[in-house]
Amino acid sequence: MAVPAQLHSIIFSFILLLLSLFDTSLSQPQTPSPAPAPPPPSDSCNGIFLSYNYTGGHAIPPTDPTNQAYRFESTLTVLNNGRHELKSWRAFVGFQHQELLVSASNAVLADGSSFPAEAGNGTVLAGFPIIDLKSAVETAGDRAQMEVRVGLVGTQFGVGAPDVPMPLNISLVNDGYSCLNATNEGNNVMHVCCIQDDLNSDSNNGVNDEFLARQEGDLVIMYDVIRAYSDNYWAQVSISIHNPLGRLDKWQLSFDWMREEFIYAMRGAYPYVVDTTDCIFGRQGQHYKEMDFSQVLNCERRPTIVDLPPTRANDSILGRIPFCCRNGTILPPLMDPSKSISSFNMQVYKMPPDLNRTELVPPQNWKIKGAMNPEYECGSPIRVTPSQFPDPSGLPSATASIASWQVVCNITQSKQAVPRCCVSYSAFFNDSAIPCNTCACGCNSNPSQTCSATE
User: Fold this and answer.
1) C-beta of residue 190 within 8 angstroms of C-beta of residue 183
2) Which residue from 72, 48, 69, 88 is spatially nearest to 170, judged by alpha carbons?
3) Cross-strand partners of 51
4) What is the DSSP letter of 41?
5) How far separated are the first and last CA of the chain, in Å rounded?
6) Which of 13, 55, 199, 416 sits at 20 to 30 Å (Cα–Cα) from 37?
7) Where would I find the COBRA C-terminal domain in this sequence (predicted)?
8) Domain residue spans in the chain?
């Protein structure tokens, strides 16, 4: 059958159109595909990756051209890219611009200080409430369990735009890790990778265990939960001295509640101030509407606890706790082992959403001091194996606590204080007593044999 001439014309025109389109595509230059974005620095770290990102800031009053104050905001990120879980993470940020740290989300100050705190010489942050960081192996790469972001807000001095107040360095403080040199990315990002030291794995604080190993220090505080209920629990607090020069007299213990807890009852010690104001006018009073708050001992966010006198040792309500009621005196074990520990119990009420007997959160920012004793710096509580106590019935068995935390405190070098009473004697056997801070006779600046009360 003959093909109509009109159909021939249509087919021919279609072929010409295809050829023209093909020719046009060949004549146009080919646009190269964009290069793939480089992987983030954290991908090359097979350990703990830390980054510090300065996000912004501005000048704040008062105006001072010589030493202007600026608000700063930044984010510290800790990511566990290692094989094992990182327990009780602690990170050092080397602040260097007279920083005053006002707040930190998901972290507390490891030295037990409260915000705001001076951080111009660097500071160590400890995780709270996210204390442990899981590994990718045990979470199938769930970054929410592997990573913590700490939002930092504070004040720094002297560094305004366009300069950026970056820290000197950042590092992981946990034992058993070695950090490489920190790397700057641009002018507002710093990151570092810290690798687990296999050669020193024994000092890794039990990284493969469920609990951290117990540590040693000049003074150790144990926070043991001995009974737990849905809305409250009983905790036993023990203070023990391990330094031969670490005597305490009239000790005072303070800490911060982080979840709006309050102290309902105590045995073996007592609050320095009995105050329920914060409960009555706060969320505690709204939640526990039927509670008689006249029986509550303390609702302060940061209570101070003191020891009871010996006359209360056998009190049926406040006493009858082993190692209690010594008027705040704790002696070194070399002097008297039986008096080297002090202990008390307290009943703690919790608030939503922690109304579960397994939701147990220890207080943070511990401080202890004595009347005329060395100053102590206390670390953050670490979860340790449950403590064991002799069976109260006298049976040859031990009773384990439900949960235990350890707080290690060490004596710090306090600032030189002017002595209030001291006497020194001349090397030349003078009959008179020499005033304090007095140079002995015959000093280089005063070669005469006359003693000076100003040297």
Assistant:
1) yes
2) 48
3) 77, 191
4) G
5) 131
6) 55
7) 420-454
8) 41-203, 219-411, 421-455
- SS3 category, 297: coil
d(CA 267, CA 373): 25
- In degrees rounded to 5, what are phi and psi of residue 248? -125, 135
Amino acid at 46: N
E-strand stretches of 138-218: 147-157, 170-172, 177-179, 183-185, 189-196
Asked if 41-203 and 219-411 have one fold, the answer is yes
Dihedral through CA 282, CA 287, CA 292, CA 298, nearest 10? -40
User: Between vectors from CA 233 to CA 232 and to CA 235, what angle results, nearest 5°?
Assistant: 145
Read off the tokens for 172. Answer: 């992981």
Q: List the structure tokens of 200.
A: 């020193």
Count the Cβ atoms, other than its own, within 10 Å of residue 183: 12
**CATH code of domain 219-411:** 2.60.40.290
Q: Following DSSP, what letter does each residue of 414-453 receive, concatenated?
A: PPPPPPSS--B--TT--SSPBPTT-PPTTBTTB-SS---T
Dig out the tokens for 310 from the structure: 């010996």
- Mean pLDDT, the chain cut into blocks of 10 residues (455 residues total): 59 63 53 74 93 96 94 97 93 96 95 92 94 94 96 96 95 93 93 82 50 93 97 98 90 96 98 96 96 96 97 94 95 91 98 95 95 90 93 84 96 63 50 53 53 53
Q: Domain 41-203: give its CATH code.
A: 2.60.40.290
For residues 109 and 124, the answer to whether their CB atoms sit within 8 Å is yes
Record the pTM. Answer: 0.78
Which of 201, 193, 136, 148 lies closest to 169, judged by CA?
193
d(CA 388, CA 395): 14
Distances (CA, A) of 106 to 39, 60, 128, 147, 171: 27, 26, 5, 11, 17
**Contact residues for 194 (Cβ-Cβ < 8 A; gap 6+):** 47, 48, 49, 50, 171, 172, 177, 178, 179, 180
What length is written for the chain? 455
